[in-house]
């Protein structure tokens, strides 16, 4: 499951945890998400997700991984 959108620290994070709890592998595209609450919470959420439940990749990294398949 690819996750993109607004409010990394709430909506994206909640969706990633819910997907993980249901057994869905997820990827958050870090340059396609943002937070209305500032960059600190945005980066904190990305680091939390990357360290525990999902892959966090840039669009270029994701494209390169797809090309390698």
Q: What is the secondary structure topology, with strand pairs?
A:
Elements (H helix, E strand, L loop, with lengths): L1 E5 L1 H14 L5 E8 L4 H14 L2 E3 L1 H9 L2
Parallel strand pairs: 1-2, 2-3
Helix pairs in contact: 1-2
Kindly describe this structure.
The protein is 54% helix and 23% strand. It is of the alpha/beta class. It has one domain (2-59). Strands 1-2-3 form a 3-stranded parallel β-sheet. Helix 2 links the parallel strand 2 and strand 3 (55-57). The protein starts with a strand and ends with a helix. The model has no long low-confidence stretch (mean pLDDT 96).
List keywords for this structure.
alpha/beta; 69 residues; 3 helices; globular
Give, in order, the helices and strands.
EHEHEH
The largest pleated sheet is described as: 3 strands, parallel
Low-confidence stretches: none
- The number of helical segments is 3
Tell how many strands the DSSP assignment holds: 3
Helix/strand/pairing category: alpha/beta
What is the count of distinct domains? 1
Give the CA-CA distance, first to last residue.
17 Å
If strands are numbered along the chain, what order do they take across the biggest sheet? 1-2-3
Q: Report the average pLDDT across residues.
A: 96
Helix content: 40-55%
The backbone outline, from C-alpha atoms, is globular
What is the alpha-carbon Rg in Å?
A: 11 Å
Strand content: 15-25%
Please outline what is shown here.
With 69 residues, the protein is of the alpha/beta class. The protein has three helices and three strands, in the order βαβαβα.
């Amino acid at each position: 499951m690819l996750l993109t959108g607004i409010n990394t620290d709430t909506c994206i994070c909640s969706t990633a945890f819910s997907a993980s709890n249901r057994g869905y592998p997820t990827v958050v595209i870090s340059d396609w998400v943002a937070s209305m609450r500032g960059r600190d919470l945005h980066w904190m959420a990305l680091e939390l997700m990357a360290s525990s439940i999902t892959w966090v990749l840039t669009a270029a990294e994701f494209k390169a991984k797809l090309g390698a398949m």
